[in-house]
Structures are given as structure tokens and as C-alpha cells.
Design goal:
Elements (H helix, E strand, L loop, with lengths): L1 H6 L3 E8 L5 H17 L3 E9 L8 H8 L5 E4 L2 H4 L4 H10 L3 E4 L7 H45 L1
Parallel strand pairs: 1-2, 1-3, 3-4
Length: about 160
């Protein structure tokens, strides 16, 4: 951890996220606020990442790229839920383990619109999984039937 701190003492990445394209203007303002915060703290900004996507989506490309980037020490987010709706403590623990830190500018959260959008995303995701499981089950049953039919056809020939 000491080596990372010496090599990247005040190098930061900024991560701004909104749930939908309807909030694109808010995304720009969020990123601007975070840049101003970083400058006021005397940080060197390595990268500013802006992403549109649900906080419950665990496969956000920009965030994934940011998590594997080794060239910064502090990740700045405006609220915990901008980073993720669930599992913030896992990410924070991992950051600490690799000698990095997540810095949350504003600990309070009061964004009902994004929360509702994430709730809809959860329901949509679960529905897709249920229908996917049903489809998968039907496919498996069809393959088993075809294998049985082939086996019976071979046995009778």
C-alpha cells in the first residue's frame, strides 16, 4: 500500500453515473461538481468517467474499466449509489485491500427518480431470468426427448 501511495499520492478518478439518458444533463453537472471538488482538494485528476446505466447493473463497461485501472489511488463519487446500489462495502473493502480508496462526497442520498429506475431494472432483470430459465428448461427437455427418441430409434433398428 505504501508503494501505491508514494507513486500515486493524489491521483484520482472521478465516476459520475445516471440511470437513464433522460438525465444526461444531470450527468454533466454531476461530473462538473466532482471535478470542482477534486480541484478544491488539490487532487490530480487522472480520468473523468461518465456513464449512463442502472446502479444495479453489475456489468457497466466504463466502471469495469475503471476498477482495473491501476494508475490512480482515489475514486471519487458524489453518492455511494452512483457507484453501485448494492455491494458498496465489497467494492470499498477491495479498494482498501489494493491500497486505494473510495471517496464519497455526499453521504446522504435522496434521489427517488433514480431509485425507481433501478427498481424497475431489478424487476425487468428478474423477469428476464425467469423467462430465460423457462426457455432454457424447455430447450433442455427438447434435447433430452430428441436423445431418447434417437436412442429408441437405434435400439429398434
Amino acid at each position: 500500500m505504501e508503494n501505491i501511495e508514494k507513486r500515486l499520492p493524489d491521483k484520482v478518478c472521478i465516476y459520475a453515473r445516471v440511470s437513464s439518458s433522460e438525465n444526461k444533463d444531470n450527468l454533466q453537472r454531476q461530473a462538473q461538481r466532482l471535478e470542482e471538488y477534486a480541484i478544491a482538494r488539490g487532487y490530480q485528476i487522472h480520468k473523468v468517467v461518465k456513464e449512463i446505466g442502472s446502479g444495479v447493473n453489475d456489468n457497466r463497461k466504463q466502471l469495469n474499466n475503471l476498477l482495473i485501472d491501476k494508475d490512480y489511488r482515489i475514486l471519487i463519487v458524489e453518492h455511494k449509489d452512483r457507484l453501485t446500489r448494492f455491494g458498496f462495502n465489497y467494492i470499498n473493502t477491495w479498494f482498501e485491500d489494493v491500497g486505494k480508496k473510495v471517496e464519497v462526497v455526499n453521504e446522504s442520498v435522496n434521489d427517488k427518480g433514480d431509485l425507481m429506475q433501478d427498481f424497475i431494472s431489478i424487476i425487468t432483470s428478474f423477469c428476464a431470468r425467469i423467462y430465460g430459465l423457462r426457455r432454457s428448461k424447455r430447450k433442455t427437455e427438447k434435447i433430452i426427448k430428441e436423445l431418447k427418441d434417437d436412442k429408441e430409434a437405434q435400439a429398434s433398428s
